[in-house]
């Protein structure tokens, strides 16, 4: 009885992890910004750790748990490295386009202020 429940739970977990893997890959492919893709890669590491844990339970081989811990550490360091890369690169392309377009537009002012500025420019 316990073996049947364990087998069903393992099968269910593998199906859910497979669905999560597919959705995460779609997010990485479709991700509109670089931070979305980095988050997707971090999620892939978490899903891989889940797969390794389920396989460790299924096979009873405890060395897989050590591998999952090592993968977690490497995944964390990779996420930190990607975040640092994004910070040193500056704004995302979408944000830099918005900032550039905002700088090009002059602030809206009343007609009286604009007339005074024109007079000052002409006087110089």
From TrEMBL:
Residues 105-124 have a biased composition (Basic residues). Keywords: Cell membrane, Membrane, Transmembrane, Transmembrane helix, Transport. It is a multi-pass membrane protein. InterPro entries: MrpF/PhaF-like. It is found in: Cell membrane. Belongs to the CPA3 antiporters (TC 2.A.63) subunit F family. This is Cation:proton antiporter. It comes from Sinorhizobium chiapasense. The lineage of its organism: Bacteria, Pseudomonadati, Pseudomonadota, Alphaproteobacteria, Hyphomicrobiales.
